[in-house]
Please model this.
Amino acid sequence: MDTFSGKAVISGNAPARNRSRKGRRGWRVGVLVLLALVLVGSVVAPGGGAAARLRRYQQQDSTYQTGDSGSPDGIAITDPSYPFQFTRVGRIVSIQKVTITLTINSGNTAPGQFDEDNLVLALDGVDTGIKLNGFGSAFDTLTISGVPNHGAELLKQLKADGTLAATIVDRTPGDGYVIIYDATQTTLTIAGKRR
Model:
């Protein structure tokens, strides 16, 4: 105790205790920051960062339609000798969207017509599940997009030779007649992810 003022004198050890508390607090903050960085890294790039390296893939090709006519089931949109051709397919890891532009006469898939929801796009024999709706009783050119069913099988076919041939699957075969217009081109766009 200070005899002149009556106040307590702080001993020389107190500042050292304050320094040690500050040191422990700094150590805890450092650990928390490190943990936060590890967690953020695992959310952004799960699986060791593999997902972060995937890139967008999109390619388009055009070819002439066949000019075939008859029952829609199995009718060719593209000539088997001139399928859609794509490059750099070895690095594709998924197909997420397929878009086709084609011209059909007597599709009868417009709202309320008998083949609505029945004509489906097939690529290399793989039923994509993409419905070719909206074609009326005359010549119509439409662009139709969708997420393909059986994406893994479709990707396997594409990687085999870089080509895809387009045909139609009829869910109710024998009830219609279509004409694939041969004086125009059909276009196919594949979109997905690649390494």
